Each structure stands twice: as C-alpha cells, then as structure tokens.
Amino acid sequence: MISEWFSHTAHSSQSGREAMAFPWHETPLGDPSTWDETLRQSVRLCFSTQFPVMIAWGPEMTMIYNDGYAQILGPNKRQHAMGKPIREVWTEIWDDVETMFGMVFSTVAPVGGAEHKIVMNRSGFDEETYFTFSCSPLVDSTGQVVGVMDISAEITDQVVSVRRLSTLDDLHSQMQTSRGDGVDRMGLALEVLAESVDLSRSAIMLESDGQLVAVPGSDVGLDLTDPEGLYAAVLREGRTQFVGHDVAVPLVVDDHGSMVGLLVAEGSPMRPVDSSLVSFVELIASALSGALQAVSAQRAVLDARDARTALIEATERQSRETSIALQQSMLTPPVQPCGLDLMAWYQPSREDLQIGGDWYDSFLTKNGCTTLVVGDVTGHDHVAAAAMGQLRGLVRAIAFDSEQSPARIFERADTAIAGLDLGNHSTATAVVAQIEEPAPGSTGTSRTLRWSNAAHPYPAVVRADGSVELLRRTNDIPLGITQGFDRREHEELLHEGDTLVLYTDGLVERRGEILSTGLAQLTDALADGHARTIVDLAEHVLSSLAPTPTDDVALVLVRVLPAGDAR
In terms of residue numbers, what domain contains 266? Predict the structure, then answer.
C-alpha cells in the first residue's frame, strides 16, 4: 500500500502516477514509507515543479523523475526507466554520468554545465543533444551523500536552430558579397554547406542548354540521376520531396514558379528527420534562388542589408545602454556600518548586447544587523534587468520589515514571487547574509555571520592570517522555483581582520570549464588578501579573474575592523 505522503505528492502527474504504481519494495529504496526524509523532500520537489527533475538515490542510483524529465528520456527509455538504476537506463552515456556523479559525491557540491553536448540513444539512433543542467548532492539523515538531484533543461532545438541560422547567415553573406555568375555563386554556397554539421552531403544542379547539370563541388554520392529517385520526383511534382535523410528542393526564380535548378541535401544522421530539417533545406534553397535572381542587382541588395544591420545594431545598442542605466541606477552605494569596512562593485559584461541580471544590496535592519544580498536573475536582456529590480526590491523590503533570518527571508520571497505571479523571468540564484552586532557587553569584535544560499556560488572568507576558506554548505534551489520549500541556514564566526567575499557566477564560471576550476582560481586570487585593503583586494580579484568579463560580475567585500576603528 502506497504511503499517504507519496500519493499526495505524486497523484497530479503522469510520471507521479507511474511512480505510485511502481513496486518500490522490490528495489534497494524499499517501500516509500521507509524512505529517508531527504529523499521524501526531494520527491516532493520533483513532482511539484514543471522543470525536468530526476533523482538518483541509493547504492544503485535508482531513478525517480517527473513529467518534464520523461520528455528527455524519449519514447524508448521512458517505458522502463522508473525505478531502474541510472546506469541501466543511460548505458550509452554512463561513463560521463558516472564521472559527474563522482564529482558530486566527492565534493559534496553541485556540478553543472551550459550547452553541454550529449550523444544519447533514446529514439532508436545515436542522437546529438544539448543540455543546461545542475547535479546537486542529496544528503541523508546521517550526513552522507547518498543521491543526486539532476535539474535539466534540454536546449537541443535552440542550439541546433542557432547553428542552422548561423549557416544561413553565412550563406546569405556569401551570396550577397560574392561576384561572378550563378555557377560561381553556387560553388561558394556548396563550400558553406560543407561546413554545416547539420548536413552530411549536398549537391546543386542548374539548368544548362535545357538540362540540369551538377555544379562543381556537388557530392556525387547523392541521388542525381536515378529516374525513380528524389531528382525525378521533384521534376514531376515541382515541390519539395524527401526520403530518409535526403531532401530535394526546387530552385525557383520568379513568381510563376519557373524552376532553374535543384538543391539536394542529406541531413545529419545524428538528428531526427522532421519538419525543421525540411524547413532548413527549404530556407537554403530560398537563399540560393534569391542569389540567382539577384545577380544583376547585387549592389542594391548589399546596401539594403548593410542599412538593416546598422539599424538593428543601433536599436540593440540603445536597448543595452538603457538596461544598463536602469541596472546601475538600482545598485545604490553600499551601507557603511560601524565596525565593518564594506565595499561593493558591479562590472558589466563587455560582450556586445549582453545585459545581465546581477545585483548586490546592503542595508541595516531596524535591529542594527548588517544585511547583504548578492543575486543573479536568469537571462541577459532588458527583461532580466527589470526582473532584477523587482527581486532586489522584494528581498530588501521583506528583510527590512520582517527582521527575520536569511532562510525565512528567502521563503517569504518564494511565496511573494508565486503570489504576485512574477513568472519564470524572476527565477534567480542568490545569497542573503546577515552580520550581527557584537554581543552587548562584549569586549571583542567577533561577529556571527548567518546566511542562506539559493543555488548561488559559495561565499568565501579571507581569514586574518591570510588563509582562504570557501563556505561549502549545502545549497538550496534557486528563488522562484516553488513556494513552500524549507530553506536552510548556516552560521560562521567572523573575527577581527576576517573578510567576507560574496560574488556572482560571472567571476568564476567560464564556458568550457567546470565550476571547481573557477573556484580554485578565486581561492588563489584571494590568498594573502589580509595584507591588502578591500579596495585593492577587489581590484586584484577582478583583474585576475575577469579582466574582460563575458558575463556581468557583482562583488561585495566586508572586513571586520579592530575595536575602536570607526572608518
């Protein structure tokens, strides 16, 4: 008989109902009534969100997942994945998964990736896929890491679409700037198509003396002569035809549909044959048709393209400048509490048209407690900048008015985000930290630091002796994912001369590098930071780790001053 807590959690989704019907007592997990509280909380989160979530728990890494993750499994795997060891379900990628899980277990820290390529077999063929994901450790009641929570977002369609758009962009550029007749231009087009990983082979045929002749550079292995093949079918029907991964499209140069050529392309065997592949080849054919039609009017086309590009760049540049001005207007000067030296920096990305949602905040609550917030809203556009302003004001108002502890502040923020229907744009990672006043009557300067971490990079402390400590504590989920989640809170003592360092991920994350590499570089940059002023230390860290940042960076440093130093 299924446990009441489990049925209440899982009944509202298809995967949940499958989980309810599964004979868990036959697995190493045992009956749900015996499950560890951490596993129960993880399962509740799994089935309460639409984000793809998978839990691997126990000695065999037994799988539990929600409807979002079921879509990732594909039609073949999801028929038998529930309750199975992950190595049996993801056999073809187990080596990579095992390595990643091993890092989670050994570091007791999340491991993630952005636009991570995975070749998986979920639909009967080896498929190229891309994911942005985070694998977090799950710790049982004894304090041991016994599982992993994988929160993933498949971005294959986006990556492939961007890649195909890049091919089309390159093709348009070549067609609009090249010189020569139609054959010369089609030869250049074949060179562009040969560079596309989305096409295995391609061929172009043009009319010559009443016959269609293959342009030099065409792949001779494609069906160009078979009277029963694609070539003949397009000639008969006058429209797009495809068989297997091969797609053939007529080249038409006027409104009357006069066909002057033919494009034949073979899609990548690592991508499904679907409407997007056909549309991609048809867009290529459209570009080729336009090039053939516009040979005599190339200069006008080129001028129009340049003008349009300049207008787009000017519009996007204005949008970026406006968003950055909005962002910086909300990043007020840091508070200067008695007994603490506090400085904050915001450094925008130097990549064109990349606007981030990073922010910092510092203020005194009514009881004299110094409150610090550092966060990063998902996204890089004016929407992210606006969402950043909403979240910053929301957290500040809750913290000041309630005078509650960091975990409770974030819990109330989750509730407010859901209740005000701020939407997915208000999802963010963040840290809220409170530095308490020294105890009344105390002769020392030591202070208690309390903080709660919503999936944000670990805070760091530069001790008075120059040593560096990353405050590796178990992180919670990002803000805005779900309400009603019980968030954790941590404590640490800050002594005279100690420096607390809070930052956003733009300081430590690099595309193509794992997070642990960036954290190690941060630790090296902070070493012996006690000998520097906090201004010098911040400038040293930024110049070492983010001299030309590809993402926004927010950085806050707080140092405990000696007794009597009021600065």
Answer: 159-293
